[in-house]
Every structure is written in structure tokens, then in C-alpha cells.
Amino acid sequence: MNILVTGGCGFIGSHFLRYMMDTYTNDFFICIDALTYAGNRNNIIDLLEDSRLIMIEGDIRDASLVDTLFATYMPDVVVHLAAESHVDRSITGPQVFLETNVMGTGVLLDACLQYGIKRFHHVSTDEVYGALQLEGGVPFTEESSLAPTNPYAASKASSDLLVLSYHKTYGLPVTISRCSNNYGTNQYPEKLIPLMIQKALQDLPLPVYGDGLNVRDWIHVLDHCRAIDCILHKGRVGEVYNIGAREEISNIDLVKRILTILGKPYELITYVEDRLGHDRRYAIDSSKLERLGWVPEYTMEDTLVLIVQWYRKRLLN
Ligand code: NAD
Q1: Architecture of domain 2-184+218-246+280-297 in CATH?
Q2: Is the minimum distance from the CB of 123 to ligand 1 under 6 angstroms?
Q3: Are 134 and 217 in contact (CB under 8 A)?
Q4: Do 284 and 248 touch, CB atoms closer than 8 A?
Q5: pLDDT tens string 288-312
Q6: Does 271 sit in the ligand 1 pocket, CB within 6 Å?
């Protein structure tokens, strides 16, 4: 099978490519990535030595390039991860989020329709559901309404609807996953965990939004990759699957855990003005996916120390 992975040089995409190439040794892989500030060829540099992987440096918004790619490599399956992914950037500059996340997804969908693919899997986020109350809110299911509260989440919700519309209108075989916050190596250091490690290593103030009590549901990036694989093989076309590991933790508790691992004082924590439209809590119910046989294998308790050490080594070099 030929599997096209978009955004394969990013955080999750690079782990997904590695996981799939290790797991499916008879399949071929094509990666398209524009190598924006968040994409890093080094994340997959060793994989590029494998003749089963072809890397195309290119933009999913470029319909002519995408057409040539499909005509040349004839992907059977597309796993779509390429996106602008940072909420703060979407607040200061939303346009590129609409262009990549919505229009770019539309370009891929058109190519999938034209060339006929077995599956288009769209990687989305729990942020499309908006915020939960800190106390008593019931975790989001796939039936929860879409209520995004920032331009990033709105662009992802829009692309979800576009993907579903291609299934309903044209019968395109699609699936969608909506995942909680991922942790792991290879993440660009603007995201919470690598950012805090970077600041702490330099003994700089660690900026924590608002009162720090915002709660996020976290999942190890490899459990996310395993979940996408499970949906590709066992998921039903036209369906949405939530992915979460039921590891809810407040931002402030997570930052304290990182400081403890690094042996740095809590006094480095500095509370800063809250992010505009900052969602209080996300929590996700992934029972639908668990009924397909997937369960998370990793916990933050077991893996955070290793991940912090990985960033420490990389940032100090
Ligand atoms: P990332 O920002 O680390 O990587 C995105 C990748 O897409 C980068 O390699 C970038 O170069 C590439 N890209 C951006 N614009 C492109 C374009 N126009 N054409 C081609 N490539 C382009 O993001 P990530 O954290 O790995 O997220 C991957 C996907 O997973 C995104 O769709 C995101 O919405 C979703 N997601 C992320 C999380 C998370 O916690 N990080 C959680 C749920 C869902």
C-alpha cells in the first residue's frame, strides 16, 4: 500500500511516520511537508535513508503540486496531519490557519476524489468542542456540539465539516479523529512542555497563563499514533473517533512536575495575563475508540521524566 502522510516532519507526523514504517514493513510512504517553522526534516532524517519513504517538500495549498503528487505516487491512504497548530499564533494571525487548515484540506480532498483513494483520515483536535466547566462537566463525546472558541479550533472544526461533507456528498471514504493534547519528543518549543523546559534550563521565568488552573487532557504521542492506526484498520468510514487517555492535569501542576524533574525552584513560575478565550477545561471520552480495541499504553507518570531528559539533552547541546 502507498500511504501519504501530510505534515510528516512535524511533531505528531514524524512519530506517526516512524511508527507506521516500523509496523508495516511492506508499505510505501510519501511525506509532504512545507517545512514551516514547526516542521523539521531532522525529525525523520534517519527514515529518509529508507527507500520506502519519499519526501516532498511542498505546500498542501498548492493544487498543482498535490495533483502531480497523486498522479505520480497514487496513494491508497492519506493521513492528514499538516496544519498550523499553535493556538497563540492563531490569535495574532488567523489567516494562515484558514488557508492551510481549511483550504489546504480542501485541496487534498479534491485530489482524493479525483484519484480515488481507499481512505482519507483527518487528524483533528478535541479543541473543536470548546471548553468544559472545571467542575462537573461531562467529557466530550463524538456527539457533543462543535463550539470552538479560538481561530485555530474554528479552522479545525471547519475542516472536520468539510471532510464529512465530502463523505456525505461524494461518498469519499473518510474518517476523523479528535485527539487531546499530545506529549512527547520532537515538539516545537513554543508548546507548553518544551517551552517550560527551555525556560527552566535558563533559570528564566516560566510564564503560566491566568491562575494556571486550566485543565488539559493529555496523551502520549505514540498512543495517538496507535489510535490512528486502529481507526485506519477497524474504524467505520464516515465516523468520528475521539482519542484521549483520561490524564487530566492542570497547567500549573504539569509545570511543577517539570520543575521537580529538572530540580528547579517553583519560584520560577510567573503568572501572566490569561490567553484570550482561554478554554478552562478539555476532557474527552474515547469509549467509542476503545470499543475497537484500542487502549492507551503510556502514562505521564512513567514517561515524563524520559521526555524531559530528551529535551534537556537537546536544548543544552
Ligand atoms: P506541528 O505544528 O508540530 O506540525 C505541523 C506540520 O505541518 C509541520 O511539519 C509543518 O511544516 C507542516 N505544515 C504546516 N503547514 C503546511 C502546509 N501548508 N503544507 C504542508 N505542510 C504544512 O503540529 P502537530 O502538533 O504535529 O499536529 C499535527 C496535527 O495534529 C494537526 O492537524 C493538529 O491540529 C493535530 N493535533 C495536534 C495535537 C497536539 O497536541 N499537538 C492534538 C490534537 C490534534
Answers
A1: 3-Layer(aba) Sandwich (3.40)
A2: yes
A3: no
A4: no
A5: 999 999 999 999 999 999 999 999 9
A6: no
